[in-house]
Amino acid sequence: MKMKIAIVAAEAFPYAKTGGLADVAGSLPKALEKLGCEVKLFIPKYSSIDENKYGLRYNWTIGEMPIRVNGYVRSVHLHQATLPDSNVEVNFIDCPHYFHRGRIYTNDSDEDERFILFSKSVIETLQRLKWTPDVINCNDWQTGLIPLYLKDNYKWDRMFDNTATLFTIHNIGYQGRFSKSTLLAAEIRGNLFYPNGPVEHDGSVSFMKTGILFSEIINTVSNTYSHEILTPEYGAGLDAVLRSRKEDLFGVLNGVDYNEWNPETDKYIPFHYSLKDMSGKIKNKKFLLEHFNMPFNENIPLIGIVSRIVEQKGFDIFSEALNSIMGLNAQWIILGSGEEHYEDLFRMLHKHLPQKISAYLGFNNELSHLIEAASDIFLMPSRYEPCGLNQIYSLKYGTVPVVKKTGGLADTVKDWDEEMHFGFTHGNGFSFYDHSGFALYKSTERAVNAFSTKEVWNKIMYNGMNSDFSWQRSAEKYIELYKLAVLKHRELFT
Ligand code: ADP
Ligand code: GLC
Predict the structure, then answer these.
(1) Contact assessment for residue 221 and residue 253, using Cβ atoms and an 8 Å cutoff
(2) Which site from 143, 173, 392, 396 is most exposed, i.e. has the minimal number of CB atoms within 10 Å?
(3) DSSP assignment of 76-95
(4) Which pLDDT score, from 0 to 100, does residue 188 have?
């Protein structure tokens, strides 16, 4: 019998995306389906999702579902579509009051209510679809209440007797913490909230902690990060909680969708290329530099950054190293949006050094592909990085990554010099250990120097382009975890 898996996330590509979670939620279901699972994906229906473009259909059988949040009954309905290149059914939970706000995540005072509604609606949709999943794979804090709801509020419904949960942590830094009043809004039993209790963290209600403690199995998105989060340095206050579930915590490296991210077929880049014929890469570089009114010189490396511009991504050490890295003989193109002071920094740099550095401050999917294809070097100096996808895309595009050795960056990028043994190396990039401007500068300098020796550079690019991070292997590991979750559930409840 086919394993039935519900994947629940706050964003999924191509419908709604702010970061890597969307890439994963949009591609893992397809890989699972290929391996024989029956998969349904659940995301909120934000107003930005174009119904016509993606062929959304209103589900008339279900009609309007009354869902209670914070004492009010909201009317929720369901749209459905099929995930491109698959038969995966996508279920869009629509509640205009909460999701038609022009942003996926907000700082509004009812942010808790938005995802309480989403979590309840997913469960009530499953009831109405009469589809019992073997496992609900929840992702990040927005879905953290689902495991608790199944074990408590919706326990009465025998259709979920055999449904287990896997909670996937994409970033422990974002925890969904709210004031005690959220208990009432979410209809969580008051006796679960007490100091160090299962839904309490430092006086607040924590959706992330709830997800961690009520799921059968937990995983995060790389092996190294699964160890790092057990330490106070990386655990963001939840390390002790995670240590208490160490036996049930696993690391599975994200895969990537090479149908979307492949320089041979990428629909967003003007010139395709491959290991056999690399000539398109330099044409893309010329094209991109011209687009930004920057001079083109094939001997000067172009360094790309595509990132949320937040502290996590290492912009603190970037700023610290600014004088020295701007002294390197390289050009820079940055795509991203986020914290204002860093955005201002890039505006200022572009104003003073327009030939050397340009920045597009916003979200632009097409440009993110073009930067991957056109750049020679890709910088990702993250303070911590659960997995990171851009360095993996970079490898495929022959764009040599320079990264800090942390989380998924450490698991995917192998330092050219460190890996060197008797003149032979599998190195595919450059990396550094210290979270310091100096370490960042030294690694970037090593990359810039290596760029000028074509033989070396070609070998580094070759090693990267040859590596394979497609989903197959990782999706097989998810299936193992789903099976483990089912077993664990059986042990606990029969
Ligand atoms: P995170 O999820 O922490 O932001 P990842 O490296 O896992 O980091 O994934 C980021 C994803 O978001 C990548 O697909 C990247 O191309 C995309 N991305 C980030 N910022 C932008 C942007 N400003 N415009 C377009 N795509 C972006
Ligand atoms: C988070 C992490 C990132 C990871 C992504 C997808 O946004 O910050 O490292 O790649 O989720 O799992």
Answers:
(1) yes
(2) 173
(3) EEEEEEE-TTS--EEEEEE-
(4) 98
pLDDT at 422: 77
The kind and range of the H/E element at 6 are strand 4-8
Ligand 2 pocket test target in 7, 21, 169 with most atoms within 8 Å of CB: 21
User: Is 492's pLDDT higher than 90?
Assistant: no
320: its two tokens: 């610290």
Whether the full predicted model's pTM is greater than 0.85, yes or no, is yes
Ligand 2 atom at shortest distance from the alpha carbon of 408? 9
- Find out whether 2 and 36 touch, Cβ atoms under 8 Å: yes
Centre of ligand 1 from the C-alpha of residue 296, in Å? 26
Three-state DSSP class for residue 261 = coil
Instruction: Give the residue among 451, 407, 459, 397 at the shortest CA–CA distance from 428.
Output: 459
Contact 207, 145 (CB under 8 A): yes
Tokens of 149: 């709801």
pLDDT digit string (tens) for 216-265? 999 999 999 999 999 999 999 999 999 999 999 999 999 999 999 999 99
Q: How large is the angle between the packed helices 471-493 and 20-34, nearest 10 degrees?
A: 80
Beta carbons of 33 and 86 less than 8 angstroms apart: yes
221 lines ligand 2 (CB under 6 A): yes
pLDDT value for 493: 80
- In the structure encoding, which two tokens stand for residue 151, read together? 């074990």
In the predicted model, is pLDDT for residue 421 greater than 90? no
